[in-house]
User: Fold these one by one.
Assistant:
Number 1:
Amino acid sequence: MTAAPRKQEVLGVGISATSYAEVANTCAGWIREKEQSSKYVCVTSVHGLMEARKDPSVRSILNGADIATPDGMPLVWALRSFGVPDQQRVYGPNLMLALCEQAEQLEHRVFLYGGRPETLDILCSNLRKRFPKLQIAGSYSPPFRALTDTEEAEVQAMIRNAAPDLLFVGISTPKQEKWMAAHRSSFPGVVMIGVGAAFDFHAGRVKQAPAWMQQRGLEWLFRLTMEPARLWKRYVLVTPWFLPFWALQKASIAMHDIACGRKE
């Protein structure tokens, strides 16, 4: 049995201490073993963590994920501060490319769930140009509403009939995490990966932040300037709370260590 990477708790959520290579190797192992239930991988940002903090159901979903990668630099820094000194970012768009490259080599079939119809068309074209032998088993652009029971059954049947090994889900946080958790028993042997805005990035619909901004934890600022109307509440009212909560957890750990030291 292929074991999942270990997790480190950050604000009540287990974040995987892992790397691109380890996630790819783990997914390959799961696909090879073809278990009855599917696996799901969350790429977890500060936004996702703060959603989990206010919504116990989201927290439960993230903690139930087989892998929850540190998608943003603040989570990378938090993991390092909690004893994972070599932790690096495992960023959704880059993870998607790494898994597609591996899928091309290992002949894994991929399915794309999410995005607008025109985005999916461009995304499929771009992926095929980059990975000529990649097997894209199918794609589906869900409507911006809840599916009816009939639609849900039809979509599940479509995905099962496509027989994918990897199912990329790009419908934003926390919708994609809720969707994957709800469909864990729907697609036996499939590995689902929630990749957030990766569909839009790789289709060229949305620009990615420059590498230097990503490395310095400033991607939020770039994205805010690109989509202020959609993202201002997230980056101005929600995610800044991560810093004091992180500091409180650090202080709590330090106090616990001091208390244990005194007992000794």
Note: The CA atoms of residues 104 and 133 lie 6 Å apart.
Number 2:
Amino acid sequence: MNAPAATAERSRAGAAPVILRAEGLSKSFGGVHALRDVSLTVRKREIFAVIGPNGAGKSTLLNLLSGIYPADAGVMVFDGTPLTGFTAHQRVRHGIARTFQKIRLFKHLSALNNVVAGFHIHCDLPAWQYLVHGPAFRRHDERCREQAAELLAFMGLAQRAHVMAGSLAYGEQRMLEIARSLATGPRLIMIDEPAAGLNAAEVDALLDRIERLRGKGLTVLVVEHNMDLVMNVADRVLVLDSGRFVFEGTPAEVQVHPAVIEAYLGGDVR
């Protein structure tokens, strides 16, 4: 996306209604406080980044938002619906998808079948259709495969559709996991460390895909260590350190904020 178009998208995102709000999120594991009283607000069609040093609580935050872990305290509201009591499965059906820092694919299925699996979250076919493969199942399966092929093409994997997921290169597996998440039909996609292990060309392609997802109307929350990617793609950035809120602002504000600099250099955050 060219610079004027990207600027226009960011302007629209800044004026958009809120799609995700979290207040006072806290989570401890034994005596370790992984997250303490963290709040955030994400607007529709925004690219919102979460950054921080190792152990800052970034993945824990995604695990709370996606329902992998229950929060010890705090509230989460998605598009006007409180998420308290929603399981991870229910949150996916409600429009929240995510990828994981450690890739979770069906390694012995093809790339295409990995994406097809994502569509079944919204499938209302009776169980017996999966046993006898009746007409309704065949129509559903054909439609899913067509849409899966489109998602693979979007992620640059059209030529790898029939390769086993475990045989794909690492960067391709990252793209495949995003494609499978998109198959669930999300309104918000949360992507955990997508640039980890990617080369420069793959990072550029990833940045382009994230921008294009926003162009398709999705909201993107990305946890990332690659600061070049964050500063180029994010509308706003939340900074965490040791499980605590440090700062939230635009990429330009984040780069010069003293508390952020201290956090990354190992100083005391006040």
Note: Residues 108-185 form one domain.
Number 3:
Amino acid sequence: MQGSLRFRPIDAEAVESPDFVKPRLLRRDANALLRGLSLTIRGLRKSFGDNEVLRGIDLHIPAGQSVAIVGRSGCGKSTLLRLIAGLESVTAGTIGFGEETRAEDVRVMFQEPRLLPWARVLSNVEVGLGRERASADAQARAESALVEVGLAEKREQWPAVLSGGQKQRVALARALVSRPRMLAFDEPLGALDALTRISMQRLLERVWQDQGFTAIMVTHDVAEAVALADRVLVIEDGRIAHDINVDIPRPRRRGSAELAVLEGSILKNLLQGTEDSSDL
């Protein structure tokens, strides 16, 4: 039976089930929790021809939670993200959000900034407004988003003169300008140098805390996952093999013993999965 992407309310009894993870308080401003979008996936399967990439995915993400998805190359983590964002159609199963949503409620930030080379920085950010780009306050909203990512002074620059980190900040501003309730990140920092990557990690964490959106990040970097996420999902063989809560207070000190122990545990699981698969 062909699956479908459904934007529908989540059953109240299901949310109270012990299988569901309750949202934790993200900020002092309780209104921020209302901005995030909850997500429930049931029996999700995705195939490309005869190749089944995802099989039997069941998942609930509470509104406002930050989740990282890790796994070896080809395990299906980016496919899962694209399905959540509506960029791919499901083969079977359902993807449901906590209430009626609009297309602009869910945004995606990719590894490549994908800026328009013929448009100045401010215009690139305005693209994120979609149909609202023609509104009277479009420019003011775009300028506000650039302030949020620390690039207000670059508003009239061309993308070609920006550094890699600056281009990703513009891409983030473009994603934030419509005030999405869920942001999906597909390896957004993978091409950056180490220092720029740390700076961008701090920026992503700050805007997530400030705005209260639900964040779902695919990354190959386990250290990045445990530094940023409330929860780390390990994908193996098209399934969620491990679902790990990161119960370490924020702000987290990168390089701390607590983060190192958790990172080592996740890496051990990934290596064990590699050994198991080699025996098949």
Note: The chain has eight helices and ten strands.
Number 4:
Amino acid sequence: MHKVLALDLDGTVLNSEHRISNELRATIQALKPYVHVVLVTGRHHTAAKPYYAELELTSPIICCNGTYVYDYANQAVIEHNAIGKAQARDFIQIAEGNDLKLVMYVQDAMLYSRSQPVAYMDRLLRWAETVQIELRPDIRQVDSFIEELDNTDNIWKFVIEGTAVSHFDQLDFIRNHFSGERSWIDRIDYASQGNTKGIALARYVTQLGYSADDVVAIGDNDNDISMLMYAGLGVAMFNASAAVKQAAQLTTVASNDDARVLADLLKNLFPAK
């Protein structure tokens, strides 16, 4: 019987309105006494926290495409492979030189430019303002990313957006120092070289004393491919891209907007004891 359930958030547990259905929430909560449930997300831990609290989880969470593991109970980073500040400085200068919009995920906040705002961050900020204060993520517009480097302990991830992302991704400096995963047609997420969801999940599962065969991993986006290929059973959502479905062993029969399908699948994969 599978012992670990690794779940992506956006496009998987969350529907297109960024909500968790009552049925899916209840199903995941019912698994907790006998299944180790871990969220594996591209999100910053502060942006995942409202959903973590809603699911009433107690396990750590793998964030920013495998960059770090965060323990909410102790409000601490357990382990990480953050971007070095010298490399971050060069990254920022090259991105801005290519007229790319930029988002920087730092220790406890997500930062984006006041002069070149990013639409999806504007939407994320509006969502954050609806979250109760104690769970609300810190999302801020800044005047200078370079200046912000001196005010943080860690840089978790960059997101770039614009027409030149493909050119940027082929630059030797970028390919030699960063792991990039496309999250939209004109958007790429960059973490430190070697960080992927699959690598982080494998390390996490080994520390639990389990193996890949014990794991069910479910996701929808390209950044989920590594963990679907690692898991004993990789499941792609119906709304996933063709590449994600090809990497999985199973595809759901409906999208993330039909939560009943995922809830029923989880009940079948993890029958109650």
Note: The domain at 85-192 is CATH 3.30.1240.10 (Hypothetical Protein, Haloacid Dehalogenase-like Hydrolase; Chain: A; domain 2).
